[in-house]
Amino acid sequence: MILLAFHNLFQNKTRLVISVGGVALALLLILSLDAIFAGVEHQITAYIDNSGADIFVAQKDVRNMHMAASAIPASIIDQVKAIEGVEIVTPILYVSNMVVTGDKRNLAYIIGLTENSPIGGVWNLASGRGQPGKSETIIDRSIAEMSDVELGDTVEILGQRFTVVGFSNETANIVNSIAFISLDDFQALRGSPDVVSFLLIKTHSGLSADAVAALLESKIDGVTALSRTAFSSQERRVVKDMSTDVITIMNLIGFLIGLAVMALMVYTAILSRRKEFGVLKALGARNGQLYQVVLAQAFMSVVLGFGLGVVFVLLLSGIIPRLGLPLSLEIRPISLLKVGGTSLIIAALSAILPIRQISGFDPAMVFRGT
């Protein structure tokens, strides 16, 4: 029966391409939407994940960066350095603002860096310098390309003109980007030289970041200290909570459309061979055997389409970053399991109607040419 299903599926190459191709495109829609949202979620925490810090120290009860403001006195830096397990302490200033290039405005995280900061700076330099000096900035390469900005051009940040001295990679997403300026410039613009936003801490090798963070909170008043992993998790949670409804609706619509197309393809492919099943029934094949052929053919179509859909998404995930778009696709194993499992269930359900028609098919109709 399995061999018969295989023969039925591959007998007509045009029908095979339409059937499997339709399933693949339907699954491509589902997988690509999920991969886009997973990629955005990963990009949102790119600065935190690549900062090089083991611990983030913020104002008390501040546990993320997105849509948050943190202000802690710079005077506690010496206290932090004295805590057991702390190796490096780097202060940064942070605000969400616009990078203005001509008539274009791009939302960005503005990060103020100390001179020669060992952590918290650019982690993937595309070109130019990775450390901003006075009245200098480093912006994302893709944002610069879309805005026709080159090294040596000026952009407006926080109401002041800055010369672009470097371009960074992996610092933009569909929500915003990251721009780096010097801490001195940031403090001058802010007018609060004795305040910083976050302290980025590198711990001694082998020590638990969570344990040192807990020690920091117990020893220093008015701060919240989180390991990089915990801080990144909080950031993703906040962004996800803010966009859950939109993401859920878009995912659901894409999922339903994809499954509907896939179900139609499977149903049509099986129903088109109704006469062949009638001949088998006339030759003595039992309904149970015909059901096996139908289900096997449906599962084969979905498995082939699923594999092709995954290949398409992998190709897209490699092509899109090369186009300079601030977007990445991230395929998660849990997504593959979810889509693959659901697809097999839909394939089985899509075969129910043809099975019911085949079970009631009169073999004599085949020989009458009906």
Describe the overall structure.
It is a single chain. The protein has helices at about 1-10, 15-45, 45-50, 75-80, 140-145, 185-190, 210-220, 230-270, 275-280, 285-320, 335-350, 350-360, 365, and strands spanning about 55-60, 70-75, 85-100, 105-115, 125-130, 135-140, 155, 160-170, 175-180, 195, 200-205, 225. By secondary structure, it is an alpha+beta fold. It folds into two domains: about 1-45 and about 245-365, no CATH class; about 50-235, no CATH class. The strands form two sheets. Strands 3-4-9-6-8-7 form a six-stranded mixed barrel. Strands 2-10 form a two-stranded antiparallel ribbon. Helix 2 crosses helix 10. The radius of gyration is 29 Å and the shape is elongated. The two termini are about 25 Å apart.
